[in-house]
């Protein structure tokens, strides 16, 4: 905002020192400059108030502790040493990291295979499938989790009913040992279609003369898919990977919703976000909860940054 | 000849598609079937995926009248939040994306780098500090606590910047300027129509984002009068599972309530698919 004030007085000076021929062009672009700030101003306000502000505030809060007897005191980095040494936080972090390592490749493979098939097959079935696969994206995660919770139910879910037809007991997918897989399925179901659409859109924008050329050189459909199509949508794949990494590390809604159905499998420290939520709203430890949030944000940021440095190449989205 | 060779491959592809359709449709199919059952039918030991009895309208009646019609109030709140948050976010992001793409001003590079970097900030990590900030100014448990933070979407700005750069030619803007049109007028009359698919995409994404949001309203709101559907149905499911047996009728409401609440977005996506499919393509290109 300060820069809006800056650019205006500089305009006449710039014009005065310029050779006569370029003066009108310069003046116009300088005026456009000030207007550019006006266009981004509303966003900048939201950005400062709801992103920079809370981030700075969380950082500030996390440096203090609040005790009933002692009041608010400066604690330096104590909250962070406490957080990274806290078995609850570490356990939750370990869970979401492990979960990301499995769910992200799984989602991406499902999305990529679906997109490649849909790019190849045309007709009514293909159009219908595309919409159905995408459908879960339009369903709130709360409801997606609830529906699967019902389907998993040992007392009236179809999985158990199917199993009992064969006289076996189906595994309860929300039990201590199985909830990892239960959640894996819910999340993949919820997001694969959205990722599929992004990849599909990228595939559709490839010029088909490339395939013709490859076919002339004797490439078969599988070779075209793996050697041409997949490399040509890498930037879409990178985008998806970053989004699902950020999303999965913040895992909250699905375990929170399935918690009451899962009979105590979802502990108050199941994921870092659930832990922070419970610290803040069950135990009113807002300072420590802010430190946990900030620490989680830091881990996500570092994870994404590492990933981007590793995969850095021309044409990736953040260059 | 190549036709004959291609046919068997497509058969496998189509079988694969059918399998995927089944997987992705099963929960929705179950939801539709279960919405037509009464409580005993729902908890019967068998036939979870097929109809028995038809009680859809009874269930709908119960849904809309339960607890003085709190479901309808939640539905209204969801519509309000999604509309205000989604439209607001779209306006803010489209203006900013256009500004970044089509104006050359000092500091643009730095600010845009900052915006891109912030795509990596997990937004839920901001919810708790935002709550504390909001409570300092007395805005928690108001509709603003849900709507205002929803206006922020760095990704939408990124998407609109790419879209504006691709779809609005500079020559056209210069021509409009020479004709004496002001920047705002040029934006509204020339650029905005060209960016329409991008705008619709961002609108849909942000409406869905707000409609589906759970963590933010769960944190910000304490009076159930202000809940959106996600938090309301979450509350019902907690009540239903905490009093096993007594909560059976509540499960019916949750199911039929879920069905009703997914219909608006499904219709929006179906009717607008021409736009968002093209809009997403551009976002993933660069």
TrEMBL record, chain A:
Top-rank lineage group of the source organism: Bacteria
Domain ABC transmembrane type-1: residue ranges: 93-307
SUPFAM superfamilies: MetI-like
Pfam family, one: BPD_transp_1
One Gene Ontology CC term in the entry: plasma membrane
Membrane topology: Multi-pass membrane protein
PROSITE patterns membership: ABC_TM1
Keywords: Cell membrane, Membrane, Transmembrane, Transmembrane helix, Transport
BP GO terms, sorted: transmembrane transport
Region of interest (Disordered), ranges: 1-26
Chief location category: membrane
Membrane-spanning parts: 34-57, 95-118, 130-151, 179-203, 224-246, 288-310
Subcellular localization, as worded in the UniProt entry: Cell membrane
Family according to the record: Belongs to the binding-protein-dependent transport system permease family.
Name of the protein this chain belongs to: Carbohydrate ABC transporter membrane protein 1, CUT1 family
The species this protein was found in: Micromonospora matsumotoense
Taxonomic path: Bacteria, Bacillati, Actinomycetota, Actinomycetes, Micromonosporales
TrEMBL record, chain B:
Keyword Secreted on entry: no
Annotated organism of origin: Micromonospora matsumotoense
Membrane topology label: Multi-pass membrane protein
Top-level lineage group: Bacteria
PANTHER family: ABC TRANSPORTER PERMEASE PROTEIN MG189-RELATED, ABC TRANSPORTER PERMEASE PROTEIN MG189-RELATED-RELATED
One Pfam short name: BPD_transp_1
Gene Ontology BP annotations: transmembrane transport
Chief localisation class: membrane
Signal sequence extent: none
Keyword Isomerase tagged: no
Cellular component, GO annotation: plasma membrane
Transmembrane segments: 12-33, 78-98, 110-131, 143-164, 194-214, 250-272
Residue span, ABC transmembrane type-1 domain: 75-272
The entry's keywords: Cell membrane, Membrane, Transmembrane, Transmembrane helix, Transport
Similarity section: Belongs to the binding-protein-dependent transport system permease family.
Annotated protein name in UniProt: Carbohydrate ABC transporter membrane protein 2, CUT1 family
Cell location: Cell membrane
Entry-linked Gene3D superfamilies: MetI-like
CDD domains from the UniProt entry: TM_PBP2
């Amino acid at each position: 905002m300060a820069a809006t004030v800056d650019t205006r007085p500089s305009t006449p000076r710039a014009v005065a020192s310029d050779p006569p021929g370029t003066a009108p062009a310069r003046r116009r672009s300088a005026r456009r400059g000030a207007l550019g700030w006006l266009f981004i101003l509303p966003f900048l306000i939201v950005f400062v108030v709801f992103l920079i502000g809370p981030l700075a505030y969380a950082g500030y809060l996390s440096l203090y502790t609040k005790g009933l007897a002692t009041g608010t005191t400066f604690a330096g980095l104590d909250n962070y040493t406490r957080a990274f040494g806290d078995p609850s936080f570490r356990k939750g972090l370990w869970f979401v990291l492990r979960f990301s390592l499995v769910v992200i490749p799984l989602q991406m493979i499902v999305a990529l295979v679906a997109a490649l098939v849909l790019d190849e097959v045309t007709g009514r079935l293909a159009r219908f499938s595309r919409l159905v696969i995408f459908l879960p994206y339009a369903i709130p995660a709360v409801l997606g989790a609830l529906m699967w919770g019902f389907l998993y139910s040992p007392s009236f879910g179809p999985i158990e009913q199917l199993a009992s037809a064969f006289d076996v007991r189906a595994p309860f997918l929300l039990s201590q040992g199985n909830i990892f897989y239960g959640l894996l399925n819910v999340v993949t179901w919820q997001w694969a279609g959205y990722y599929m659409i992004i990849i599909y859109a990228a595939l559709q924008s490839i010029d088909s003369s490339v395939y013709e050329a490859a076919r002339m050189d004797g490439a078969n459909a599988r070779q075209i898919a793996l050697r041409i199509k997949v490399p040509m949508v890498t930037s879409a794949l990178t985008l998806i990977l970053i989004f699902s990494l950020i999303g999965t590390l913040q895992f909250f809604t699905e375990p929170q919703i399935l918690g009451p159905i899962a009979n105590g499998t979802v502990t108050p420290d199941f994921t870092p976000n659930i832990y922070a939520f419970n610290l803040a709203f069950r135990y009113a430890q807002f300072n420590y909860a802010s430190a946990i949030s900030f620490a989680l944000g830091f881990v996500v940021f570092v994870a994404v940054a590492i990933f981007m440095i590793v995969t850095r190449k021309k044409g990736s989205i953040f260059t | 000849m190549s036709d004959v060779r291609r046919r068997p491959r497509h058969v496998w592809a189509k079988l694969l598609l059918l399998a995927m359709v089944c997987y992705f449709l099963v929960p929705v199919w179950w939801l539709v079937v279960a919405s037509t059952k009464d409580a005993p039918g729902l908890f019967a030991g068998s036939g979870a995926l097929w109809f028995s009895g038809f009680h859809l309208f009874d269930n709908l009646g119960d849904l809309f009248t339960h607890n003085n019609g709190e479901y309808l109030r939640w539905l209204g709140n969801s519509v309000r939040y999604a509309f205000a948050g989604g439209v607001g976010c779209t306006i803010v992001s489209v203006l900013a994306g256009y500004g970044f793409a089509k104006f050359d001003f000092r500091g643009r590079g730095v600010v845009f780098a900052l915006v891109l970097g912030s795509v990596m900030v997990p937004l839920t990590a901001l919810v708790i500090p935002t709550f504390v900030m909001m409570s300092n100014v007395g805005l928690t448990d108001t509709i603003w606590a849900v709507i205002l933070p929803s206006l922020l979407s760095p990704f939408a700005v990124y998407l609109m910047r790419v879209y504006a750069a691709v779809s609005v030619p500079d020559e056209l803007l210069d021509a409009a300027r020479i004709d004496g049109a002001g920047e705002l007028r040029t934006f509204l009359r020339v650029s905005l129509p060209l960016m329409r698919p991008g705008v619709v995409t961002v609108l849909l994404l942000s409406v869905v984002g707000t409609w589906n949001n759970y963590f933010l309203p769960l944190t910000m709101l304490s009076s159930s009068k202000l809940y959106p559907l996600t938090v309301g149905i979450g509350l019902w499911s907690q009540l239903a599972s905490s009093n096993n047996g007594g909560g059976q009728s509540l499960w019916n409401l949750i199911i039929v309530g879920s069905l009703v609440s997914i219909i608006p977005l499904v219709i929006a996506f179906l009717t607008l698919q021409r736009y968002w499919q093209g809009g997403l393509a551009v976002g993933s290109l660069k």
